[in-house]
Amino acid sequence: MDERKRESMIAYLRHRMADFGITPDDVAAALAAAPEVGRYRSANGDSWSGEGAMPQWLKQAISAGQSLGHFELSSGCVSTPSLQAGADWTNDPFAGSPLARSNAR
Prior knowledge:
The chain is mainly α. The protein has 2 domains: about 35 residues, no CATH class; about 45 residues, no CATH class. The chain is about 35% helix and about 5% strand. It is built from 3 helices and 2 strands. Strands 1-2 form a two-stranded antiparallel sheet. It is extended. About 0% of the residues are buried. This is H-NS histone family protein.
């Protein structure tokens, strides 16, 4: 990623954090407190510890050509944020991507 795109993304993230009242300390606390529930996780939030039988969602992804390493969690896994009512997502550059998916109520 070139420097201009990087700076643009940082500005966008700062703007969205301000919209929701999120501070850098909030992000740091969420990262520090996030429990690791499994060794592997899907975009939908399904997880597997790596022990016992491999779950169906992971078998299907692997047979479709995805690598097991794609689903492996790093030590700093992030929990799903709660959504704030009335948020304006019309200009969200992540719309339609895995980053935009959530468990909407």
